[in-house]
Amino acid sequence: MSEFVKKQLVNIWQTTLKLIEDSGQFDPAVFNIWIKDSQLYDLDEDFATILVPYKINKQIMMDSIGFIQQILSGVIEHDVACQIFLQEEMNRLSSSSVAKARNEVMFENKIKEDYTFENFIVGKNNREAQAAALSCCYYPGKFNNPLFIYGNSGLGKTHLLHAIGNYILTNKPDAKVLYIYSEDFVTLLIESMKNKTVEEVKERIAEVDYLLIDDIQRLTQSASQEVFFNLYNKLITNHKQIVITSDIHPNDLKGIENRLISRFSSGLSVAIGAPEFETAKAILSKKMEGREDTIMIDDDVLDYLATKFSSDVRKLEGTLNELFFKAILYNPDRIDLAFAKEIFKEDPVMLRERSELTVKQIKQAVCEFYGLTRHQIESKSRTKNISTARHIAMYLCRKHLELPYVKIGLEFGGRDHSTVMSSYEKMVNLLKENDVMMQAVIRIEHQLGLS
Ligand code: ADP
Ligand code: MG
After folding, report:
1. Residue 310 Cα, ligand 2 centroid: separation in angstroms?
2. Does the beta carbon of 158 sit less than 6 angstroms from any atom of ligand 1?
3. Which of 194, 212, 373, 378 is the most exposed place for a label (fewest CB within 10 A)?
4. If DSSP states are collapsed to H, E and C, what string results for the chain?
5. What pTM, to 2 d.p., does this model score?
């Protein structure tokens, strides 16, 4: 990059920063500590690459990325999407040959052979999703485009995507099918932007006949959304089939632009729910088929597991693995109900029924984790770790107890319901970005027997 261009970038960014500072959007302290030290590293027709020193700078700026984008676009007088990098992320990839090699990895066949339609058990909970997935195989790009499958974690969404992929690989070997996990898509784009291979990546994706994109709720970077939006339009116009999964309904997706959400809703959205007892039991029997364990398992053990764990098929499957594993350790004659009950007695999920969970327990678990008192998290204190703990506790109350915001506000020192609501929404977004916070939440949830 020439000195002249570098200087121009510095000027553009100085002007942008001044406007951001004057806008009053950020508290002056926040601006000085976390925003001022950013740099405009690169700028082209579509993208601005911003460099920041620490993760926290990135998190705070990502929180207001739309605003920053708007100001910068105003300064340069055309619309750009901003991408924020840490210096270390920037250092990770230096040569374009490495980038090309990485692109290759991304385009490798990622379809898992053992997730097929044949071993997908159909029940009331997933019948519509399975039928819609099959229709995409028979009539690609025709009826349900895009097909949007949504439902809680562990209910078979990824399995169905791979089943489509396997069907195509077997029955239409000439068709190109690409399975991408949304987070990998973001990584692919980030790296290709840095190495100027975005166009190549876009062209390669635009060539596919089937795009299977998993966990779209993780597509939260605005620059990737821009690229995805363009690709999406191109593929749909060319009658290529797109299948998307998500853990929530398209209308509830947070951090994803409205124009994308409205596109997602233009095809068919189908829900996938938790299996009923019979389906859960059939899934267990199916999962047993391929096992080589010689130990016998009583039928009423399967009944017991299907009743207790059917809200999450991944967990249901995990319990089976755990039973066989423990059977190797303790060597019983066969796995009977008493043995199974004994094993799962230690599991916190079994010890605490979800319905027993209370606000008090949530507060207590959060306080224990952060070493605070209940009085502190209910107080108005704005000390960083107290307010973080409070936000997490309020978030957990909403997520697991589904309490009205008004009620949560009352539980936490008489806060206004709109404050609680915006705090909850911020936390949902923050958790997508902030690993440390996410780990804290996971550990607290585990403590409460929720994971
Ligand atoms: P999701 O993507 O919805 O989080 P997965 O597709 O990863 O869930 O499913 C979790 C596990 O449960 C996988 O091992 C999958 O094979 C299994 N599973 C879920 N639903 C079914 C089903 N209907 N039949 C067979 N296996 C299933
Ligand atoms: Mg999945």
Report:
1. 17
2. yes
3. 373
4. CCHHHHHHHHHHHHHHHHHHHHHCCCCHHHHHHHHCCCEEEEECCCEEEEEECCHHHHHHHHHCHHHHHHHHHHHHCCCCEEEEEEHHHHHHCCCHHHHHHHHHHHHCCCCCCCCCCCCCCCCCCCHHHHHHHHHHHHCCCCCCCCEEEECCCCCCHHHHHHHHHHHHHHHCCCCCEEEEEHHHHHHHHHHHHHCCCHHHHHHHHHCCCEEEEECHHHCCCHHHHHHHHHHHHHHHHCCCEEEEEECCCHHHCCCCCHHHHHHHCCCEEEECCCCCHHHHHHHHHHHHHCCCCCCEECHHHHHHHHHHCCCCHHHHHHHHHHHHHHHHHHCCCEECHHHHHHHHHCCHHHHCCHHHCCHHHHHHHHHHHHCCCHHHHHCCCCCHHHHHHHHHHHHHHHHHHCCCHHHHHHHCCCCCHHHHHHHHHHHHHHHHHCHHHHHHHHHHHHHCCCC
5. 0.63
